[in-house]
Amino acid sequence: MKERSKETISYTMSRIKGKNTGIEIKLRKALYEKGFRYRKNTKYVFGHPDISSQTYKIAIFCDSEFWHGYNFDEAKKKIHSNLDYWIPKIERNIARDKEVNERLEKEGYTVIRFWGGEIDKELDKCVEIILKALKKKGWQPSPIPELIAKKKNP
Questions:
Q1: How far is Cα 152 from Cα 38, in angstroms, rounded to an integer?
Q2: Is 17-137 a domain of CATH 3.30.470.20?
Q3: What confidence tens digit (pLDDT) does each residue in 77-125 have?
Q4: Are 70 and 115 in contact (CB under 8 A)?
Q5: Within a 10 A sphere around the Cβ of 69, how many other Cβ atoms?
Q6: 114 CB burial (10 A radius; 0-12, 13-18, 19+)
Q7: Rounded Cα gap, residues 66 and 72, in angstroms
Q8: Rounded to an integer, what distance in angstroms lies between the CA atom of residue 51 and that of residue 31?
Q9: Pairwise CA distance, residues 148 & 154, whole Å
Q10: Dihedral sign, CA of 30, 32, 37, 40?
Q11: Is the pLDDT of residue 138 over 90?
Q12: Which pLDDT does position 127 carry in this prediction?
């Protein structure tokens, strides 16, 4: 494999999105269709959850497998370059996720985390988990999505 310059690597890394990723958008659209209104990446909730509601004290994170260390004991064996950078970085991400979960739970939040693959392959199941947690907190779906659907299909 051809060696890449530091500039090329830096440019590639700068293009990686941290917000509004495909999995986040997919989950948000599905929740919106069910009538759940939310905030995205709000600075007012610790950890800046991808999707949250301060009213219902729920924080939802859409974690990509690489950056958040899915099955990391196995995955780190597949990292072949720049080990001194990647392994501590991902281990710190895993630790930070735990810290965020603990703090939010102390503040009374329900914290839900999904792996990207879960959202891609089992979107309905993910949505159902969130809606069940919301209903426990007293959330009622808005009738507006149902009214819109009726207008589209009279």
A1: 24
A2: no
A3: 777 777 788 788 888 989 999 999 999 999 999 999 999 999 999 999 9
A4: yes
A5: 21
A6: buried
A7: 8
A8: 10
A9: 10
A10: positive
A11: yes
A12: 97
